[in-house]
Amino acid sequence: MSKASADSSSANTQATAPAYTPDKVWTWNKDVGGKFAAINRPTAGATHEQALPVGKHPLQLYSLGTPNGVKVTVLLEELLELGIKDAEYDAWLINIQEGEQFSSGFVEANPNSKIPALMDHSTSPCSRVFESGAIMLYLAERFDAFIPKTLAQRTQCLNWLFWNIGSVPFLGGGFGHFYAYAPEKLEYPIERYTMEVKRQLDLLDQHLADNRYLCGDEYSIADMANMAWYGSLVMGKLYEAGEFLDAASYKNVIRWTEEIQLRPAVKRGQRVNRVWGAEKHQLAERHDASDFDRDPKDILNAVMGRKMGQKQD
User: Fold this and answer.
1) Superfamily of domain 59-146+269-312 in the CATH hierarchy
2) Which of 58, 61, 102, 160 allows an S-S link to 122, with CB 3.0 to 4.6 Å?
């Protein structure tokens, strides 16, 4: 039970609040409130014409440094760390708060209008890959790396990769939304999704008690995908919810996260398309390995200048 539910004044407020009764047929209320109310809508497709920029590398990533974006940039940096030069990429910043994911160019890359989206110009015709799990699997198979070779181990890797895809909506769209972004704190959804997130963390913690990585001793895309979300969560980097979730109690998840985050490629990948937090952890866009040595302010200013120019056009 949360502290809020134990507080009598909070309980009285909830008791006297008018109950929500859904209409017989739903209609769009644009003033419902919340962090993303201004950009959410019940229809798909583009809202405005704007082509996506294309850089010098075959792999063009359009993303943001959220956990789903980090999954892909960490994998790309890990591939480059192996010396796979064909994994070089351009990572363009997509500002979802400004609705850039609804541009005609982005919708062409991902009709679902969610980051990340990847365009592979090394194929003919160009291959579009959307959904973070699909991008990770595409890259791992294309470069034959970070996915186990034996059928048994590959199956375990895909088990945990798709577990991530199915579980994260309860963490992000469920717990994260109602705990951190909803216009008001409501006991039922917070309690409901907290219960599920803690169950997920306990599952990971139990599995990692007997395994160095999710697939035993082999580091894989399954680890990258889950570390981006659950590793960030237990390290207190998501929703400011570490204390609330008693994240410190999941010691095996913390051990696994700390080991992975020591990897140089992970450190780089976590910076890409990130424009908040400590400046040393930011890199608005990445077009060359040398960008990691540049002043993040200079890169951000260049990105913002380009975007302003696009709006004026």
Assistant:
1) Glutaredoxin (3.40.30.10)
2) 58
